[in-house]
Structure formats: C-alpha cells, structure tokens
Write a structure and sequence with these properties.
28% of the residues lie in helices and 21% in strands. It has a single domain, classed as Purple Acid Phosphatase, chain A, domain 2 (4-Layer Sandwich), CATH 3.60.21.10. It is built from seven helices and nine strands; from the N terminus they run αααββααααβββββββ. It is an alpha/beta fold. Helix 5 crosses helix 6. It comes from Telluria aromaticivorans.
Length: 192
C-alpha cells in the first residue's frame, strides 16, 4: 500500500497505460501445470460444472480487462462471488454466495481439469495448509503470525518449505496488512 500510495494510488498504479497495469492484464487468472491447477480464489463446483476450460477462463479475464465484456456466464466464472478470483469455498462457507465445498466436490473440480490438486490463496491461513485430503493447498500466509512458508511443486509433488524470513508486515490498521516498504534496503540487495 505504501508503494501504491507513492505511485498515485491503486487505480493509477494499476491503470492499463502503466507498465505494471499492462503486464497484470496479460497474466492468466488460472493455470494448469502438470497435475496442479493454480488460481487465486479457487474453482467453485458451479464454475467446474459450467464446463469452462483454463483457456476459456483466461480469455474471459483478458477480455474483461480490455473492455470487451465476456458473456454473463464467463464473467461470473472469473469475477463473480463464486468465480476463480473470489471463491473461498474450499476453506469456508460463503453464506448466500456459495456453500462450503465438500471433498467430493473438490474431486469433481479436479476431474474436470484432469488434475490431482489445486493451489489457492485469497484466504489467510497460519501456514501452507493441505485440505480436502491433500487435494487443496491453501497458501495465503500474509500475516506476521503465519509461519514463513512457501509451497514448491517438485517432481509433480507438493513440498512445504521454510521461507527463511518473516513477512515484517505493518499491521497497525485492523484488518489491513501491508509490508513496511520504507524500511527496505536498496533494490539491488532484494532484502526487506
């Protein structure tokens, strides 16, 4: 948030005419590598049941960013409450937006993509966490109290590794987590 404020705010920093804004709009919203699917929020049973592919979901997100609005079904599948950018159903019930996923539903989602596991962020966890019989790997450890861990996929298998350093987040605002960027050393050292 500090860096964004220094660049004129979030909207300005991520605008389509900025280097980072343009770059972000080219990135996939979901990927499949080997037998692992990776996305921000998760793939809800509704999205999997729609039959949309990784390619279709990424195309819908890119079209959304370019202003070429995809159809309602595709748009909901990427940015709707149960879309791949917002869904948290592997970890919790979404109240009126979606129900908590069962392990059987997770299996159906993985079968749709021909995968063995899905890696998600979007919901804080105390450390990299395997859920639903190791079919879901949650890895949003964006808090000073979380274990400093990362998830590595080695030879097609998940491996939790120590990150070696705490996040050193400024958590003085309740509910808001941000790194203390002003304390960073010069960029060439890549240390904060």
């Amino acid at each position: 948030m500090y860096a964004l404020a220094r660049m004129g705010g979030q909207a300005g920093a991520f605008a389509p005419d900025t280097l980072i804004g343009h770059w972000l709009r080219q990135q996939p919203v979901i990927i499949k590598s080997g037998k692992t699917v990776i996305t921000h929020g998760g793939v809800s049973p509704t999205v999997a049941d729609s039959g949309l592919t990784v390619s279709t979901l990424n195309s819908a997100m890119r079209r959304y960013w370019s202003g070429d609005m995809p159809g309602k079904g595709e748009l909901d599948a990427v940015v709707g409450p149960a879309g791949v950018t917002q869904y948290r159903g592997y970890l919790m019930d979404g109240e009126d937006r979606y129900a908590a996923a069962t392990t059987s539903q997770v299996g159906d989602v993985l079968a749709h993509f021909g995968a063995r596991r899905i890696v998600v962020g979007h919901t804080l966890v105390d450390g990299v966490t395997a859920l639903h019989q190791d079919k879901v790997w949650a890895m949003d450890v964006n808090s000073n109290t979380a274990r400093p861990e990362a998830l590595m996929i080695r030879n097609g298998e998940p491996l939790v590794v120590a990150a070696g350093a705490s996040r050193q987040l400024d958590e003085h605002k309740a509910g808001r987590r941000r790194p203390v960027l002003s304390a960073c050393l010069p960029a060439k050292t890549w240390q904060c």
